Amino acid sequence: MLKKREVFRALEQANVELRHANERMARLIQYDEKTGLYNYRHFMERLADEFKRARRYGNRLTLAMFDIDHFKEVNDRFGHPAGDRVLKGFGEIMVRSSRETDIIARYGGEEFVALLPQTTAVHGQRLAERIRRVTEAERFHGADAPEPIIWITVSAGVATFPLNDRIQRPEDLVKAADDALYRAKEAETARTSTSAPCPPLADRALSSGAGDAVGRRILASD
Predict the structure, then answer these.
(1) Catalytic one among 17, 50, 92, 110?
(2) Is residue 28 part of a domain?
(3) pTM of the shown model
(4) N or C: which terminus of the chain carries fewer CB neighbours within 10 A?
(5) Which portions of the chain are predicted below pLDDT 50?
(6) Within 10 A of 153 (CB to CB), how many other CB atoms are there?
(7) Amino acid 192: pLDDT
(8) Is 92:153 a contact under the CB 8 Å cutoff?
(9) What pLDDT, on the 0 to 100 scale, is given for residue 214?
(10) How is the chain classified by DSSP, letter by letter?
(11) Which residues have CB under 8 Å from 7's CB, separation 6+?
(12) What are 115-146's pLDDT values in tens digits?
């Protein structure tokens, strides 16, 4: 009888450990380790689902893609642990600035995405601008908090389905946002531009902020 109880206890413990292992595996599959946001794989799965839903019901689907400007300089100057803090901190800004229904993910490296179901191009641009401004004002800390203080800026590209005729697949929405982001990174001044049938946000020429970071830019897809 005693031996059976020991066997049952061992089985229960094994089941608990297996369940915990499965939970950890599920989290690794869905979430980015450094930021706690959704990872690229999960984002692409959600994008496919949301794109199908938007096409079926005729809803707007907006994608905002962000890139931390000069992030390599952060790693080179302050070290990779400090860079990891910046990545996590920026991810937290994105979550705080977004709705619960928005899908926030780390796309890869220093690139992040916000997938915005039932969101117009104008509202997507406003969200990108809000995230840009909050990030610009944020005081990020190095690995040895509270010093040093690290200032960063971000660039963003925004694309909306179905306003752009070239967007027919989920991958097209990503490419449109990425192309807009590329143009934003190439621009000399901060601005928002779009050829979509919606009023663009006012163009802006902004001076450089504190620290060494420059390049706060947002562009919408053509």
Answers:
(1) 110
(2) no
(3) 0.78
(4) N
(5) 20-21, 189-217, 222
(6) 20
(7) 42
(8) no
(9) 33
(10) -HHHHHHHHHHHHHHHHHHHHHHHHHHHHHB-TTT-SB-HHHHHHHHHHHHHHHHHHT--EEEEEEEETTHHHHHHHH-HHHHHHHHHHHHHHHHHHS-TTSEEEEEETTEEEEEEET--HHHHHHHHHHHHHHHHH--EE-SSTTSSEE---EEEEEEEETTSTT--SHHHHHHHHHHHHHHHHH-SS------SSSPPPPP------SSS----EEEE--
(11) none
(12) 999 999 999 999 999 999 999 999 998 877 66
How far apart CA 126 and CA 170 sit, in angstroms, is 22
Whether residue 25 is contained in a domain is answered as no
Token duo for residue 22: 């499965």
What is the per-residue pLDDT for 109?
Answer: 95
Tell whether 73 is covered by a domain. Answer: yes
Whether 110 is a known active-site residue: answer: yes
Tokens 């937290």 — which residue? Answer: 92
